[in-house]
Write a structure and sequence with these properties.
three-stranded antiparallel sheet, 5 strands, mainly alpha, two-stranded parallel ribbon
Length: about 350
């Protein structure tokens, strides 16, 4: 929960107290929260109860209690306490979005890798048909990412990277990345995609969208660096002057775009495990499409526009976009497909 979220939560509690008749006072347009002063506790505090006590004709601590009872248990708030003459003090709970972004940053391209299949030992028989080879090699990587010991049993066969031209005309014709996507994106029982269509750089081409989304994530980070915006996901407002604007700064988790992207990033480990268990690389490919589309839907809100001042929300969205790029790059690597910085 950001300071802006907390401000809106407190304002909503005041409004409900007035509507329910527990508090007779005008509802303020905005409520400021700030770091607790000496004697305060928790992460943030507000003096709104002291401001409303006069108009309400009640003791500030009574007003604070009316507000506190309507905030306790709100998502993102672990504890609400009244201190001094009537200050409301808030201890925030762990922000799952912040934790997710931080975990992706720490794990990097191996985010979603695990040990769920560490007891599995798989030896695949050698195959000659091209698509079967591609799927088998990819499944071996997926299983290995989940801790399994998987390999194609040796028979002196050539690796896909070194297939002779007569055996992999599709690789020679459209290139490795498009060929792999054409063979891996459909389920194994479906026909491969028309590889030539994957060379067209437009939205109807899913491979283009996925790789373009990754390149956009890198471009956003480069642009932010030029603007002096650090990549971070912080609960506190750290930029000078931001404290006066916390009541109007949106949360990184606010809006359909952020929510969709957070959901996709959070689902990534389960998708990787499922793709490995079911020997189904197409599940990962489809999930990369979902992640890419969510990032592309969010990209225009990441950086300030015009005279807009960089805020905590911009820094948080930037961290979210960078995390999405990491997930896209890691997923493409498991499919054997490159992730270009520029596209």
């Amino acid at each position: 929960m950001t300071p802006a979220d907390l401000s809106r939560t407190v304002l909503g509690a005041v409004r409900r107290a007035v509507e329910e008749g527990a508090l007779h006072a005008p509802v303020p347009e905005r409520i400021r929260v700030e770091r607790p002063r000496p004697g305060g506790r928790g992460d943030y505090a507000t003096n709104v109860a002291l401001r409303l006590a006069g108009p309400a004709g009640r003791q500030a601590r009574d007003v604070a209690e009316a507000i506190r009872s309507r905030i306790a248990g709100s998502p993102g708030i672990a504890h609400v306490e009244i201190t001094g003459p009537g200050f409301l003090n808030f201890t925030l709970g762990t922000d799952p979005a912040a934790g997710l972004v931080r975990t992706i940053g720490e794990r990097g391209l191996e985010y979603g890798h695990g040990t769920a299949l560490s007891a599995v030992r798989v030896g695949f028989a050698p195959v000659r048909e091209l698509r079967a080879r591609v799927i088998t090699d990819t499944v071996v990587r997926l299983l290995g990412a989940q801790g399994a010991a998987a390999a194609v049993e040796p028979d002196g066969r050539e690796r896909i990277a070194a297939l002779p031209a007569r055996d992999d005309a599709v690789f020679d014709r459209v290139g490795r990345d498009a060929a792999l996507w054409a063979l891996l994106r459909p389920a194994a029982h479906d026909q491969p995609l028309p590889a030539a269509a994957l060379l067209v750089q437009k939205e109807s081409n899913a491979l283009f969208r996925v790789r373009y989304a990754y390149s956009r994530s890198r471009a956003l980070v480069r642009a932010a660096d030029r603007l002096g915006i650090p990549v971070s996901y912080e609960r506190e407002v750290s930029a000078p002057g931001d404290a006066d604007q916390v009541a109007v700064v949106p949360s990184v988790a606010g809006g359909a775009g952020s929510s969709a992207l957070l959901a996709a990033l959070g689902d990534h480990p389960a998708v990787l495990e499922s793709a490995a268990r079911l020997r189904a690389p197409d599940r990962l490919a489809r999930h990369l499409e979902v992640t890419a589309d969510a990032l592309l839907g969010l990209q225009h809100t990441v950086l300030p526009v015009g005279d807009e001042k960089p805020s905590a929300a911009h820094r948080s969205r930037l961290a979210l976009a960078e995390a999405a790029g990491t997930v896209l790059a890691g997923g493409l690597a498991l499919l054997g497909i490159s992730a270009p910085e520029h596209l």
